[in-house]
Task: structure prediction
Amino acid sequence: MKIFYCAMLAVGLGFGLAFLRTISEFGWTVEAPVLAGTQQVEPLNTGPKVVVSSDTHAFDRMYQNQTGTHTFVLRNEGLSDLKIIPGKPSCKCTVSKVSRRTIPPGETAKVTLTWKTGKSKGKYRKRAPIKTNDPAQASIQLKIEGTVTPDFAFQPPTLFASGLANDMEKTLEAKLFFYGKNVVELLGEKLSREDLKDFLKVDYLPMPSDQITEPYATTGYTIRVNFLPGMPTGNFHDAIIFQTDPSMAQPVRLNVNGTVRKPVNLFGPQLDRETQILNLGKVAAGNNRQVRLLMQVAGRYRDEVKVELTSSEPPGIGLETGPDLLLAKGTLRQFPLIFTVPKDAKPGTYGIGSHSEGKIILATGHPDYPEIELRVKLEIDPQENTSKPASSSEESPVETNK
Result:
C-alpha cells in the first residue's frame, strides 16, 4: 500500500512539473466561470506585451550625406519574458544596437537606429521592423522621418533654351537657394566652355529675406542668363560654375543646354544640305513631277518670311507653299514648299554628268537672308512618238498595154 501511494505521488509531481514548464514558456489564461445572468469576462493574458512610447522619430531637417542615430525604448508590460529580434530594415537604415533581446516583465530594452541621408532630397522616411513573441503584436515598425536638404539647389536644376535662333536675344531665369546656417555670398562665375563666353551673359541678384519662401533656405539668388545673337548653330551643353563664400563641398553648377537654329532653314530628302543641290529626279516630257521640302523659320523675323520663286532654270518650275505649323512652344514656324516640273517643260539634262546644273532662286522677305539659291539636278526625257508610219508595201496600179 505504501508503494502504491509513492507511485501516485510521483505521477502527480511529473504532471505538475510539465504543466508549470508549459506555462513558463507559453503563458496561460485563467478563465473565470460564467454565472447565469452575467457577462463574459475577458481572459487574463499572462504572456508578454510589447509597448513603445513612440514608434516614430521625426528629426525635422538634415543635410545630404549626414548620419543620424536615435534610440527607441521598448517595454514589456506582460507577465512573461518578451523576446525581440531585429528584422531587415529599409535601405540606408540599420539597427546598430539592441541592449538585450529578452526583456523580463516590467523591464525595458533600448533599440538604436542609425541612418544615412546620402543623396536623398525632400521628404525622408525609413523603417526598421522588430519581431516579437507578443501574441497580439508579432512585429512593430520603428520609423525615422524628416526632410533632407542639400547644401544648395537650383530651381529649375537645368536651363534649356528651346526655339533659339542665332539672330535673337533670349533671357532665362533660375533661382539659387542655400540651406546652411550661414549667409552665402556669390563671388563670381565662369563658363565651362570658353568658346561661348561672348554669347552668354550672366547676372545674379540676392533675394530679400522676406521673399525667400523655399523651406529651410537661408540665402537666395535670382540668376539671369542672357543668350546673345551670333551663337553657333546646333546643340550646345554648357554650365555656369559659381564661386561662393564660404565654399561648398560640391561645385555650385547650373547646367545650360539648348539648340541654336538658323533663322531660315530648308530641308527634305531630295535636298543635299551641304551642297544645296535639289534633286528633282527624272521625268518624261509631257508629265509633271512634284518634290516637297520643308522650311522652318525662327527668330525676330519669323512671321515676316513669305517665300516666292523668282526664277528657275529650266524655266517654268512652279512653287506652292502649304499651311503653317507652329513648333517648339510657338517659337518655330514650319511650312512645306512644293516644287512642280510642268508638263510642257522642254527636254534636257541638268547637273548630271557633264551637263551644267539648273537653278532655282527663292525670295524670302527676311532682311538677313533675303534670297536662297538652290542648284538643281533634273532629267527631262523627250516624249516618245507613238504614231505608226505609213506602210510602204502598197503598190500603185500599173497600166498594161494591150
